[in-house]
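Need a sequence for this fold. Nothing fancy.
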């Protein structure tokens, strides 16, 4: 069961990304503001995460001081992702937008793993992984057609 839970959580997260993109794009289109839509999205997410932290976790804020400086900017990546996907989805379509972002994510993940960057354990690039990445790029091209 322990091995299944992370897989189920990751699959649900992927579904959430697929639903989040058109949701935020609709809000951006309705408000005529990509940045207002992204702000509303993050305010809702922040409120939910803070509520869960306050009700369940309650780890002292001071505990985060031990993290390296680069660990404090993760929200900036998420903010850019939300804004970029909200912008790209109505122009490229959801499938193309998400295949592009997934291909970029997997490519970055293989490089980060290979070099053990950002606190990850080293996990070497293999021929199998390179073939997988090539198939992802082929998938992007096929979905784009």
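Here you go.
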């Amino acid at each position: 069961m322990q091995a299944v839970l992370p897989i189920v959580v990751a699959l649900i997260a992927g579904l959430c990304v697929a639903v989040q993109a058109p949701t935020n794009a609709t809000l951006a289109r309705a408000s005529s503001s990509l940045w207002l839509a992204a702000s509303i999205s993050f305010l809702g997410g922040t409120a939910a995460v803070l509520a869960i932290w306050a009700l369940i976790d309650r780890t002292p804020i001071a505990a985060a001081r031990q993290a390296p400086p680069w660990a404090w900017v993760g929200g900036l990546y998420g903010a850019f992702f939300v804004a970029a996907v909200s912008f790209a989805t109505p122009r490229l379509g959801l499938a193309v937008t998400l295949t592009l972002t997934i291909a970029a994510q997997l490519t970055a993940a293989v490089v980060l793993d290979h070099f053990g960057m950002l606190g990850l354990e080293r996990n070497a690039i293999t021929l199998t992984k390179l073939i997988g990445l090539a198939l992802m790029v082929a998938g992007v091209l096929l979905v784009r057609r």
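For context: DSSP finds five helices and no strands in the chain.
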